[in-house]
Amino acid sequence: MKARLRPGVLFRNTLVVLLTLLWIVPTYLVVVNAMTPVKSYTGSPVWWPTGFAFFSNVVQGWQAGSFDQVFWNSVLYAVVGSGLAVALSSAAAFGLTIMPVRRPRLWFWLIYAGTLLPLQVFAVPLYQASAALGLYDTKTIMLIVYTALCIPFAFFITRNYLVTIPSEIGQAAKLDGASWWQMYLRVFLPLMRPALLAAFVFQFIYIWNELFFGISLTISAENQPVMAALASLQTQSSALSQPAILATAVAVSAPAIIVFLVFQRFFVTGLTSNL
Amino acid sequence: MGRLGVEPEHRIAVVLREGPPALPQHAPFGSHDPRIVMTLVKGSVLDETKTRSEPKSRPPRRSEPRYERRDRMAAAPFFLAALLVVGIVLLIPFVYTIIRSFIGSGDQGFVGFANYVTMFEDPNLQLSLFNTVFWAIGSLIIPVVLGLGIAVMTSSMKLGGIARAAVILPYALAGTVVAIIGNIIFTSAGSLNQALEFIGLLAPGAPVQWLLHWPLNVISALLIASWQSTGVNVVLYMVGLQTIPRETVEAAAIDGADGWVRFKDVIFPQLRPTTIVVIGLTITNALRAFDVIWVLTQGGPNRTSETLALSMYRESFLLLDPAVGSAIAVVLTIIVVVCSWIYLRRQIGNEA
């Protein structure tokens, strides 16, 4: 068979190699240009390394964009926002799948539907409400909005996990006289750990990378998330040279990339193992 | 990166093979990029999810000991907190935006469809609507076709994992970062023009102004966005490929079908359920793309690369016209929901 297919296989392999190169080129250009010393940068991107100034480039961008502050803002938003969303969602998922409820589908869709809508449909009222309540450009409004944005999908993950858990487990706990809260905290939360972690990691990356509400609801470095600050480096400041912007972009991408790489095996094995 | 969910005998394959195709009804096709992998993993268990949550299946549901009335109320505290947060921050604003779109600016009060008329008569917004459709179609061609191609071509290659890793890695990047990368490539003195000059396709000193003219600016944004989003589709198709019974492909090979015929007549038809999910996810995400375009071109120059997601932001937050901004948001929502609906309906039709 192999002998007969050789021209086809050759064609396929060539195509795959070309596509792979095509995909690596942008990444390569970022790395090379992010470490190009600002002084030797002519205004056009380079194709070959001309020195190693990555860290001093990061420092330049870091200072220009007040990343000392916004980096930690995003850590707060991503950790607390997704943590809260996962906590609330897992309770909701428990209530709607394990406990007896009337109209479970209605409640499911009310909690889940938000994820089908474009973000723009929430923006004006949230902006006006935050201005009216004195919450515009505060950490409070960002945490509230990010938590709410993450609930529908975290709920979806935890709920789908819970329906795969045999109902005998709940029944056994019930017969042992456990209250619903005991059952949730002692029995189901530990069982749900893979789904909780997966939901947390997904929402962490989502909040970390979020831009739209970052520029709609905050304005000051004191409260801006990291991508909002990075976007204004690119779109506003012309004083900063491209290598510094690229180096900063690489640096602020690191948390999401690391989380993704560390957990990507877990996503697949952890979640599919429960099918 | 290794094999992203590509263990051939994984149980996911068994589940998918036995049941009807993955139901995208519950798939978060509107969700934002980082979440999509979840869909492929969780989207496949939804048959069970669905039957269990069906109201009519409630009586035999879980054959539990009979619950008392007190117990039926007990669930409320568990889901009310999530419902309240989502209701106040997402659902009420959603309804408010719909109402707002029928109210004029200032103290004009109810104006009927006037904001929509203003919107559709504005040449900037007409172009924006066109660009939005262009994005939807373009993202079908590049990320879906390439995602399918890369998954199928690399699935049986020894070093295919390397190719997949290269394609999947950009997936963790923020749209903002993707746009910054796009900028060094597509700017007039950028890498793409350098490369074109180097291979002689472009005369030196006569750069193509990728970002400064329509439609090249729209295409540039679409290309760099596709660079990021194709990986997700590769992962989706890799999972889809696991659901194909190996015997069917082997039988075709024994019958003498070559690679292309095997793909066209045996593999692709069996990937249909995956394809529907991939198309739905890709279109709805393309319609909602904001970060990449905003950071790459700010929708410019002269608003020529705007899509509705950007137009809404510009009208509401920069031109301070929330009336038209709300109308744009509603139109965008309708397009997203209609696209989802068409694709859901097709899926349901296929199953019947």
Main beta sheet strand tally, sense and closure of chain A: none
Mean pLDDT of chain A: 86
| Molecular shape of chain A | globular
- Tell me the fraction of residues in β-strands of chain B, as a range: under 5%
The tally of strands of chain B reads 0
Calculate the terminal CA-CA distance of chain A, rounded to whole Å: 36 Å
Order of helices and strands of chain B: HHHHHHHHHHHHHHHHH
> What is the CATH fold-level name of the domain at 67-226 in chain A?
MetI-like fold
Report the sheet-strand fraction of chain A. Answer: under 5%
Helix content of chain B: 55-70%
Structural class of chain B: mainly alpha
CATH fold assignment of chain B: MetI-like fold
The total count of strands of chain A amounts to 0
* Computed Rg of chain A: 24 Å
Write a structural description:
The complex is a heterodimer of chains A (275) and B (352). Chain A is mainly alpha-helical and 275 residues long. Chain A is built from 12 helices and no strands. Chain A has a domain at 67-226: Orthogonal Bundle (MetI-like fold). Chain A has helices spanning 2-34, 54-64, 67-97, 104-112, 120-132, 139-162, 167-175, 180-191, 193-209, 212-217, 226-235, 242-272. By secondary structure, chain B is mostly helical. Helices cover 67% and strands 0% of the residues of chain B. The longest helix of chain B has 33 residues, at 123-155.
